[in-house]
Amino acid sequence: GVVMKNKKILCLACGGGQQGPLLAAAGAIVTVFDISKSQLKQDEKVARENNLMISMVQGDMTHLECFKDNYFDLVFCPVSVTYIPDVISVFKESYRVLKTGGRFLFGSVNPLIYLFDNKKYDKGLFEVVNKLPFNSLDELNEKDKVEFINNKEAIEFSHTLQDLIGGQTMVGFNIQDFFEDIDEDKICNYTAKYFATKAVK
After folding, report:
1. One digit per residue, pLDDT tens: the chain, 201 residues?
2. 76 three-state secondary structure
3. Residue pair 82/133 in contact by the 8 Å Cβ criterion
4. Are 123 and 91 in contact (CB under 8 A)?
5. What does the angle CA 171 – CA 175 – CA 177 come to, to the nearest 5 degrees?
């Protein structure tokens, strides 16, 4: 297994009380960075209940100025870039804050899921209607856009595979591993819904 003891790990846009506490329990020095206060509160709660040391920082994943260059051993970024329009800045910043030889573990939905009509998708009917790259507002009329924004729903952005994978190598990362994953979603009867990469600085 991988030794976590005293490794400095940045859990990027990773609040919610899941991965951060597990890594801290394995002996890592964990910083959870997330834009959502309520997500960070979950980590705080789990850390308190389990007597774990975790640093919580609220912020935007495309701006990591609060962290020094060449500081972390590992940056872990699960499926969260779907909520931001620009992934390249995440890769650039992750590369900067990692030590040489540090690892970048990244997960994403396969952008192909955004091809389909959203309402029908939830029923397991896959009708191609959207052009990629896509964002949630693209498929709404003016009235629905207002409702969407008033409901404070998160806008999702598809990205190109070129940005999601090629973007990592463009900033200097060396991708060493790649795998695909599924969940309970009906689309997974046809194809993997997620992918993950392991890259090294």
Report:
1. 567 889 999 999 998 888 999 999 999 999 999 999 999 999 999 999 999 999 999 999 999 999 999 999 999 999 999 999 999 999 999 999 999 999 999 999 999 999 999 889 989 999 999 999 989 888 888 888 888 788 877 889 999 999 999 999 999 999 999 999 999 999 999 999 999 999 999
2. strand
3. no
4. no
5. 155
